[in-house]
Amino acid sequence: MNRMKVDEEEYWHSSKFKAFTFDDEDDELSQLKESKRAVNSLRDIVDDDDDDLEKFSWSGEPVGSISWSIKETASSSSGAFEGRDSGLQKGSSAYTTFPKPVSSYSLSSFFKGRHVAFSSTALSETGVKSYAPELRRPKAEYKDYNSDWSPKDTVRRMQKGKICSLERFRSLQDKLLLLDEAVAVHDGNVITAILIFMKRTLKKAILFRELEVRQVALRHLIHFLKEIGEQKLLLDLLRFLDRMEEAALTQYREHLSIQDADKRKEFLKGCVGLPFSSEDAVHVQDHYTLLERQIIIEANDRHLESAGQTEIFRKYPRKASILNMPLVTTLFYSCFYHYTEAEGMFSSPANLKKTFKIPDKQYVLTALAARAKLRAWHDVDALFTTKNWLGYTKKKAPIGFHRVVEILQRNSAPVQVLQEYVRLVEDVDTKLNLATKYKCHDVVVDTYRDLKDRQQLMVYRCKVERGSPEEDKIDGILSSSQIRWKN
To answer: Keywords in UniProt for this one (predicted)?
Structure first.
């Protein structure tokens, strides 16, 4: 009986299995200690020059912060075995999974030998809180992603800028509740974010149907689609809502992204038949016709300029292409380079005026600016000269001669030309102001003479140069006995 007992004891002593002890050097805790020592020893081998990374303690707080200092102080004053006892109570064996704290290492720390400062109690005194570096976020942070927030709570958190997962709102009812809650709080950013989620997860027909009865959200989606340039979905939405004119205008705006003139012309040709309003339809037709004319004029003038046989192109080389320019710019170009052409030519100013029904005021202003820039004063004169049915000529300006004078002066017209048109200004005060401003002395003297204002004439005499023809003229008028002065 004693031999059997001895054999049994020898069997247990000779077994390759060992009982669990806290002092066993081969347990999992010892292995983790060795791992920590190996990681910390890397800093002696690798050059630690990456100071721009922030250091964190094992508790997850930045090293050196106020909260870190407080926790370190509290940790130092606690008992050495308190942490171990509390940690072991949570598991039933040595293989129990311990809570995973925030790691004090980043990935770059492992490869560059980075390390963090530890308290004096280190691994042996902190118990289960300091086992191995953990790269994942603390579980508290996953609450924002995984918690079962209601639509109201989700919207409130989105208002505060917190990240919330919308993927769990899978049913149409939940998504609509979420959208309605966002509309109720009047937060445009949240509304747009939820609409982006719904656009991605719902079919177009369902999304359009639900937004049709939610006008606030609908306006947000239309504005968002316009901002990001998602034209196809926007056109589908407008057609679903039977807003055909707005859909036509949206499609028409796409021409702005077409750079090639020929391709833009073909696109505009396709837009002519869209359901525009009557006024917009005229503008679209004119746009297509104008671009078609510009392409023809540009090709012809480029050839003439390269040939070098046309005087005006040699004297005034073109500075830019006429393609895709507005109607007024095209008219100015035509008045500058093709003013004398017959009405049957596409580049003729008269042809442009007739084709696009340009008003007389706009045509005269543009033609005056173009011919004055060329200092073609005879063309300026012909522009305002009309004949009545008796054959008498008369100057007439639909824009007012005071504006004619201003345009001529900006183009450095001679005093003789300015004086001719200053005299045609009907308002006396305006005429005197313009004549004085631009030094049209004859006009000022004649106007004061017609007004029989001797006093103002004498004042003006002091403003002209001594011995000048203007002074002699004033002296002759003042000495005349045929004028009955008012003062």
So the answer is: Cytoplasmic vesicle, Endosome
